[in-house]
Amino acid sequence: MPLAMKQVAPGIFVHQGVHGEVTAENHGGIANIGFIVGAEAVAVIDSGGSAIEGQRLRAAVRAITDLPIRYVINTHVHPDHIFGNAAFVDDAPAFVGHAKLAGALTARGPFYLENLIERLGDAAAGTRIILPAQGVGERREIDLGGRVLRLAAHPTAHTDNDLSVFDVRTSTLWLSDLLFMDRIPAIDGSLKGWLEVIAALRQVNAARVIPGHGPVSADWPGALDAQERYLRTLLDEIRTLLAEGGTMEQAVETVGRSERGKWLLFDDYHARNIVTAFTELEWE
Amino acid sequence: MPRLLTPLLTRITLDPGLRSERRRAPMMQVRSILFLAILAIAPGFGGGEARAASDNLAIWPDIKAALFEGREIHDGAGLLQLEAPVRAYDAAIVPITVVAEIPQTAERYIRSVHLIIDENPAPVAGVFHFTPDSGSASFSTRVRVNAYTNIRAIAETSDGELYMATRFVKAAGGCSAPALKDAESAMANIGKMKLKQTDDVVLQEVNQAQILISHPNYSGMQFDQITRTYIPAHFVQKIRVSYGDRTIMTVDADISLSENPSVHFHYLPEAAGAITVEVKDSEGMTYDRSWPMTPAPAS
Ligand SMILES: [Zn+2]
User: Fold this and answer.
1) Which ipTM did the prediction report?
2) A195 exposed, middle or buried (CB, 10 Å; 0-12, 13-18, 19+)?
3) Does residue B84 belong to any structural domain of this protein?
4) A177 CA to middle of ligand 1, Å?
5) Domain limits at B287?
6) Which of A140, A198, B66, B106 is the most core-located residue (most Cβ within 10 A)?
7) Tens of pLDDT, residues B122-144
8) Which CATH architecture has domain A6-221?
9) Which of A179, A188, A197, A241 to probe the B interface (max B CBs under 10 A)?
10) Looking at the complex, does the CB of residue A2 fall below 8 Å from at least one CB of chain B?
11) Burial of A199 (0-12, 13-18, 19+ CB in 10 A)
12) Is this prediction's pTM over 0.95?
C-alpha cells in the first residue's frame, strides 16, 4: 500500500512521520520523507525507517509517475531516515549523502539495524545498510530534467553528516533533521555547531521549508524560531551554570525547564540533550 | 568477549568456563546490549534501557573473589557514600560521585577506591588512589553503563580495611564507543587537557578542581562493518595528578570511563605551586600538562 503523500509545492511530495517511538506498527515511519519529480527523473529524499516503509514510498512514487528514480538522497545517518534504501536498489539510483555519512553509517549502522530487528521483528525484513556511493563534500547540483536540486553538506550540527536540499524551481528548502518542529530536537552532533548552521540557513531565501519531524511544510524562516529558542536556552543556561562551577547533574535538574510542555517527547530526550551539550560546552 | 578485571593494571580474566555458563547469550546478544546508547540518540530509538541485567546471575561474588580474595568488606555507612542517577540520561556518560566522609589525615585516610560496575564487560571502571595531600578522597567521574547494574565504590583505608557503598543504576548500552558525535575532531584533539577550578585557590584548605582529558576512550567494542573486525580498544589507562612534588591522586582506568574522561578531585596545598597531570593511554601515548595555582591574596 503506497504511503499517504502531500504535495507541498508542484512536484514535491512529502509523507508525514508519526510522533512516537519506532514500533512494528509504524514500520519505523517516524520521519518526514518524500520525493521530487522533474521532467526526466525522480529524486527520493530520505527513504524511511525500514525496507517496508521504503517499498511503500516507492509505491507512492509509482502512483504518481513512471519516471526513473535516479537519486536516493540520504540527509543523515539516523535510521528513521535511511533504512528504506533497500527498497530502491533495483532502480539502480545514485545513493547520495554527506561526505561523512559513509563513515558514520559504517560505525553505527550494524547496531541501528540490530535494534530495528529487535523492535520490528518480521517487519524489519529486507532492511539493510546501504552506504552512499556518492559523498557531497560541500555543494553539488543534480538535475532531474528542468529541475535543479542544490545539495549542501553542513558542518557538524544535528549530526556530523547533515545534508540539505534546495529545489530551485519552487524555492523549497528540504532541511530534514536540521529542523525539528513539534518534536523535541535531538542533539547528536554539536549544539554550538547547530546554532551556527541555523544562523547561516537564515540567509537562504526560501518560500517554504520541509522539516525532518513535524508538519510536511512550514513558513520560512519563522519555522526555525522555536528550535533556535530551545537550543539557545540550553546554550545560555549551561554556560551560566558552568561559570558557577555547576555539575552535569545540576544541569540535568535545572536547565531548559521553561521548554517543558512546548515539545513532544520532551521527557525522553531533553536530559540527554543536556548531557551532550554540557560535555561540549565545558571545554570552552 | 571475556570479562576483564583490572586491579592495579593487571588484567585478570575470570575463568571462561564459569562465565560462559552464566552468560546465556554469546557475542551477538552482548553487542546488541552494548550499543543502545547510540541508538537512543536517534529520534524514535529512545527508551533504550529495555534490556535488564536479569539475564545474568549475580556476578559480584566472582568480582569480589578476584579482587579482594575473601577479605571482609564492611558496610560503607559513615565512611563513604556513592551518588549516581537511578536512571541514566545517557548510558555512555553516567555521572558518578563518591563522597568520602572521613578527612585524609596522616593517621587514617582512604588509600584507594575501586569503582566497579558489575554488569560491564570490564567491571573495574577505575581504581582511584589518594594520599593525605588529597585533603579529601571525594571524587566524581563519568562512566559507561552497559546494562541494569549495581555500581560499587569500595574504599580501602590506610589501616587496610575495606568499606563498600552500592547503587543500582538503570541504563544500557553505554560501552558503545561510537557515542562519538564528531569522530574527526575527537582524534584531532586527543590528549588535550583542561583544568578547572571555579573557586579561588586557598592554601592550607581542601580545594576542589576538575581535570578534563580529551580522548575517545575507544572501548574495543565498535564493530567495523567493512573490515568485519572490532576497532581496537584505545583508552586512558593511567592518570596521575600532583601538586608540586606531592601526589594528589592516581587513577588506574579502563574502558568503562566515558570518552573525554573527567575527574573532580581534591587537594590540600601547603604553599603556592603547580598542579601537574600526567596521562598514559593503552597505546603507550603520554600527555602531560602543568598549571600554576595562584592563591587568592589575603583580603
Ligand atoms: Zn536525525
Assistant:
1) 0.85
2) middle
3) no
4) 5
5) 91-293
6) A198
7) 899 999 999 999 999 999 999 99
8) 4-Layer Sandwich (3.60)
9) A188
10) no
11) exposed
12) no
